């Protein structure tokens, strides 16, 4: 597709015809992560915060969907998976299998391009950390978070997410 945009140009700045043409010309890949893991990651990155995880979650819930940060906003509202037909959806925690497949489908030598992943360790660590952080939340906060991320949980197979229960 003719390059009519810079790196900073967002898709919404183009008209419908241009947007459709661009989307047809690209291979579209969406990387998804359990929304609860995204919250934990964001909380841990905010090293200047002295608040508890429960307080952080309450701030997220109080901000609402429209005022929420991209760091924890529901993926469905960011990526429009119902409108954009993605060619690949890559789940965090399964990167080594999925990226290898994706590179092979693109005709690239997957073995030489992929860094070494420790998916098993990452999944175990996040599982343990999720359980610890989840236990800090009140029942009401758990229900509100499940509601806040209901469309992500419906759109993507986060079967082991604590928010799914």
Automatic annotation (TrEMBL):
Membrane topology qualifier: Single-pass type II membrane protein
Subcellular location: Golgi apparatus membrane
Top EC class of this enzyme: transferase
GO biological process: carbohydrate biosynthetic process; dermatan sulfate proteoglycan metabolic process
Transferase recorded as keyword: yes
Transmembrane spans: none
Record keywords: Carbohydrate metabolism, Glycoprotein, Golgi apparatus, Membrane, Signal-anchor, Transferase, Transmembrane, Transmembrane helix
Location (main, coarse): Golgi
Record flagged with keyword Transferase: yes
EC number: 2.8.2.-
Pfam families in UniProt: Sulfotransfer_2 (PF03567)
Family: Belongs to the sulfotransferase 2 family.
Name of the protein: Carbohydrate sulfotransferase
Organism: Sula dactylatra
